[in-house]
Design a protein that fits this description.
By secondary structure, the chain is mostly helical. It contains four helices and no strands. It has two domains: 41 residues; 47 residues.
Amino acid sequence: MSKWLDLPPDPYDRMDDTFETDYIEAELRDALRKKRERSDRQREIALVDGRAKLTPSLVRKIRADAAAGATQNAVADKYGLSQGTVGRVIRRTLWANLD
């Protein structure tokens, strides 16, 4: 839009931006959904193969220890995990579906 001509705003410009934004958001949502499905599938395979470091019972123990007041570093040392992994388990970024 030009300040020199004082033209009214073009309604089609906004429609194009909205369409592109909606399209990009839909693509991102789809990519995130696929990533979650892939990680869930990989976790299930690792549990069956015995390659998983975290199991449902270990996740419950980690959350119980944290609820009892143990620090993330202490819990990580106890179970041989990194502090970041323990933090993600506690915040439910990992194993969010487990109660």
